[in-house]
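Class prep. Write one:
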Amino acid sequence: MNRKESRNGGAVAPVRLVGPMEELRRQEAAAQVSAPALLDQIRALRRERDAVILAHNYQVPDIQDIADFVGDSLALAQAAARTDAGVIVMCGVFFMAETAKILNPERTVLIPDVNAGCSLADSINADQLRTWKGEHPGAVVVSYVNTTAAVKAESDYCVTSGNAEDVIRSIPPDREILFLPDAFLGAYLERTTGRRMHVWMGECHVHAGIRPDEIEARRAANPDAELLIHPECGCTAQVLWARSAGTIDQSRSFVLSTEKMITHARQSASNQFLVATESGILHRLQKEMPDKRFEAADPGAVCRYMKMITPLKLRDALRDLHPCVEVDPEIACRARVAIDRMLAVPARQQSVE
């Protein structure tokens, strides 16, 4: 794998996280409204505004519970593409709201907190991608969905972890591929598809920080549990090597996108699961399968960007129809090509490994 470093002088700059979760709780308390009353206000405003609330799997439980639809990046894009609601509220991170706006240029798209960013999306910008493309003329650019609209506009394909393997396999073998921005997902795709690619050295700070020693300790303490691991994790390569070496049972360990984790857990005969991704997904898993037990493989895997959206901010966004998300029409038109190609390739429901 030819890994590409970011052009800010080497390694990707460290992520500046928002303040502690306690501050968000203080903001909620300062609103001087009870939680049930706040949720009632959200429901009333949703009806009044003809709005649909879309929430990512990593959102806080209250947001997931009041949302009209909960899913991963691909599922949220699909939901945004088919909605007839006049207002779309994206409870996720900013690139997801941009995608919803690109798919619905005439509709109002809101994000309750514009500071809900993404360390992975911030690891490459459009200027960097154009320079990289200039070094590899004719290469096919495959961008992970965790990218800005401007980067998608410079791409041939947009993919998610659920359909990336199928897209890579569909590209003629004689074509160079530039894959960005996730280095760990890129390495995983090289292994599963056998395609050598040029891979940008970006990472999700949450998945990159999931610790192999923590996973191993919890796996040893829960030998009957199945291990579900997201391909963005920095420890994915180590887990795959351990599976091939026989030190981890291949029949009880799976590399899966978040939606495939839910599908797999629902279909599995197992009742215990260790889940290696952002911990917000545990709420949906436990809610949909209350008779099964789910545990974070690394409890420290929490994305504070995903936790920035709260019921209070959601209420205010619906009340004020602000903050609105806008995308430059020329960028949106070009990015739409890559997004439509993503939506045309369904995520396969079986394990990707």
